[in-house]
């Protein structure tokens, strides 16, 4: 995967202010806003109750304690007890209110993000590392949930508590209130500076965690390769470097937090000390009495946590902002492959697939590079089977992704029955055209579900489903599924039984066939099969393909033989189209490609190459003359000297 949003990108990705950045959560929060408000109200009531306790204490100390009325003291104590109980109930109620909506928001965000990942084009997935997507999906959304449930509610409530508490502090004496607030100000300034630094660190650490997840995912996927090449140690040292980088970032975060906590601990102590001395002086002056000073300190104790927590809650808010940015990085990706505004429908397609001056280049291609597909002109007639042949890296796989719009052409167009594929609704297009890929991906599901993946119209367990399943399995020569432990209901894929490469390919082929498309695009679907099975599959395909237009990327001469015609892809263009024997006669490049396919085949099966001597000579000469212009042999219909040699 290429340049991806990763640890290089450590600043918040949006230039929005923090409130504006968080405001983007509104659509997710809106359905649960009343419950969140209920949580905030409960928290506020709890805070107000807590603030009432010092006032009651002041009354008790100032009145009954001084006069020694035991029954009134007990009554006062009961009030304090009731208030404390009320506060505890309100805190409990706050949790009840906020837990459910926060998990609801988390669930909604996760499913929306997942469906977004499904609809974003393949080109997006080329650019983004899977670990980044994973960490955004799990970690960041989880953090947003925690912030909504606790961070946001407590921030609002604690600010209100401080405001109310300060008014009450001033009620006892302006000097005490001022001391308390003045010492809080440096705390807030430090808190603000801390937030700025901490926000950047948080984003960096979240990005690095994403990179680390990518590494784990890659090495788990590639465990066989790593083991086979003894690269485990190398992978480990790369991993530990990344883990170390993340650790350093986490350490910086921890250092930032410890320095802010130093201030958070220090300033309130100073405030208490100064207030105590001032309080004693005020008592000596007769400005306040002992009961008031006691109540003042009780109130200061209640306010200490809200004041201290403000810095922490702000940094939590910044974490949430960063997480929101990271999630919205994905939401705000522009989806270029979407349903058309004015869709055209094709009820019963004939199955004519045409490429008209189709151009394509990958997004990361250099500006000076030529288009990978540089003006493809090719028409597949309805019901025709066309093999696509070309050297490795010539763009065959890329070409097969255009009809189903996994990628969109960057110039020209692809049409189905004369209609630009971009004018068809995507679901309809992909119903008409099915694909099987080079690497047969199966999902953690039963064989039945995997094969009938493209048949959303069918109940997989119905009789019709069973029929479609059997038909597809027959064509793909996949009878082996019946000897699996649970037959077609055996769970395969990552969570289930592992299948061999050839078995996987056959199921992928069955999946494409079961979709009953009008056009079938097969990217080298038979490469992992042995020659006998391939022959059987080809035979069965001939029946299925009878009224299906098929484009088959062929890496084997025997696959080419299945086709009505062959198209030769060379230097980004289709330089020759014709039957296998026609092309053998007329195209030097075709002979070169076929002979290299045969050589590969021979190397794979261990059989003696069946390249005729003449072809070998041709091949060698072609190798020497490879630099010659690509198009001259295609345009020349007349046989060259070498052609004549082959024909002899
Ligand atoms: N997702 C991608 N992003 C950028 N470049 C890509 C991507 N996929 C393929 N390419 C490049 O495009 C070129 C053509 O690749 P493609 O897979 O289409 O070749 P191919 O003809 O199918 O080869 P093979 O016969 O080996 O399967 C290659 O040079 C490859 O590096
Ligand atoms: Mg390919």
From TrEMBL:
Q: Which residue ranges run through the membrane? A: 32-57, 72-93, 147-168, 174-194, 260-283, 295-318
Membrane topology term reads: Multi-pass membrane protein
Locate the coiled-coil region(s) and give their ranges: none
- Domain ABC transporter, first and last residues per copy: 353-596
**Major subcellular site:** membrane
GO molecular function annotations of the record: ABC-type oligopeptide transporter activity; ATP binding; ATP hydrolysis activity
Q: Does the keyword tRNA-binding apply?
A: no
Under which name does UniProt file this protein?
Answer: ABC transporter ATP-binding protein
């Amino acid at each position: 995967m290429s340049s991806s949003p990763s640890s290089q990108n450590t600043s918040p990705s949006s230039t929005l202010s923090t409130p504006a950045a968080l405001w983007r959560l509104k659509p997710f929060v809106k359905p649960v806003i009343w419950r969140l408000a209920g949580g905030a109200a409960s928290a506020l009531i709890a805070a107000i109750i807590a603030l009432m306790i010092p006032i009651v204490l002041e009354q008790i100390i100032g009145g009954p304690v001084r006069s020694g009325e035991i029954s009134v003291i007990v009554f006062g104590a009961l009030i304090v007890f009731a208030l404390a109980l009320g506060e505890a109930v309100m805190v409990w109620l706050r949790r009840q209110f906020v837990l459910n909506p926060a998990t609801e928001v988390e669930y909604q965000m996760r499913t929306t993000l997942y469906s977004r990942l499904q609809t974003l084009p393949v080109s997006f997935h080329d650019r983004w590392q899977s670990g980044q997507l994973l960490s955004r999906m799990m970690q960041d959304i989880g953090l947003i949930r925690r912030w909504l449930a606790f961070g946001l509610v407590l921030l609002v409530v604690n600010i209100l508590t401080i405001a109310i508490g300060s008014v009450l502090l001033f009620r006892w004496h302006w000097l005490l209130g001022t001391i308390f607030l003045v010492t809080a100000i440096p705390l807030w300034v430090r808190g603000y500076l801390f937030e700025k630094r901490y926000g950047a660190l948080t984003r960096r650490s979240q990005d690095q965690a994403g990179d680390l997840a990518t590494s784990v995912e890659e090495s788990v996927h590639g465990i066989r390769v790593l083991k086979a090449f003894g690269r485990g140690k190398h992978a480990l040292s790369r991993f530990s470097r990344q883990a170390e980088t993340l650790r350093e970032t986490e350490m910086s975060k921890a250092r930032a937090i410890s320095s802010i906590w130093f201030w958070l601990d220090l300033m309130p102590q100073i405030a208490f000390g100064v207030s105590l001395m001032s309080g004693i002086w005020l008592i000596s002056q007769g400005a306040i009495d002992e009961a008031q000073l006691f109540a003042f300190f009780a109130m200061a104790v209640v306010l200490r946590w809200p004041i201290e927590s403000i810095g922490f809650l702000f940094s939590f808010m910044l974490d949430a902002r960063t997480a929101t940015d990271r999630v919205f990085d994905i939401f705000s990706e522009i989806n270029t492959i979407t349903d058309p505004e004015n869709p055209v429908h094709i009820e019963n397609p004939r199955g004519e697939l045409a490429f008209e001056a189709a151009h394509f280049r990958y997004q990361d291609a250099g500006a000076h590079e030529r288009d990978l597909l540089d003006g493809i002109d090719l028409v597949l007639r309805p019901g025709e089977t066309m093999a696509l042949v070309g050297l490795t890296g010539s763009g065959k796989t890329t070409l097969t992704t255009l009809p189903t719009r996994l990628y969109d052409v960057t110039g020209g167009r692809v049409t189905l029955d004369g209609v630009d594929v971009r004018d068809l609704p995507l679901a309809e297009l992909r119903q008409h055209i099915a694909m099987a890929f080079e690497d047969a991906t199966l999902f953690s599901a039963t064989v039945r579900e995997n094969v009938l993946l493209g048949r959303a119209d069918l109940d997989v367990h119905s009789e019709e489903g069973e029929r479609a399943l059997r038909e597809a399995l027959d064509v793909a020569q996949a009878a082996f599924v019946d000897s699996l432990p649970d037959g077609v209901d055996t769970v395969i894929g990552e969570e289930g039984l592992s299948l061999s490469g050839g078995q996987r390919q056959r199921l992928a082929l069955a999946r494409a066939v079961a979709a009953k498309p009008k056009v079938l695009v097969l990217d080298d679907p038979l490469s992992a099969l042995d020659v006998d099975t391939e022959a059987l599959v080809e035979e069965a395909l001939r029946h299925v393909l009878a009224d299906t237009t098929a484009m088959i990327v062929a890496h084997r001469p025997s696959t080419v033989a299945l086709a009505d015609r062959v198209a030769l892809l060379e230097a980004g263009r289709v330089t020759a189209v014709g039957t296998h024997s026609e092309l053998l006669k007329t195209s030097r490049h075709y002979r070169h490609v076929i002979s290299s396919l045969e050589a590969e085949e021979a190397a794979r099966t261990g059989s003696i190459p069946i390249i005729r001597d003449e072809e070998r000579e041709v091949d060698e000469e072609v190798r020497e003359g490879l630099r010659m212009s690509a198009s001259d042999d295609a345009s020349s219909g007349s046989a060259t000297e070498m052609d004549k040699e082959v024909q002899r």
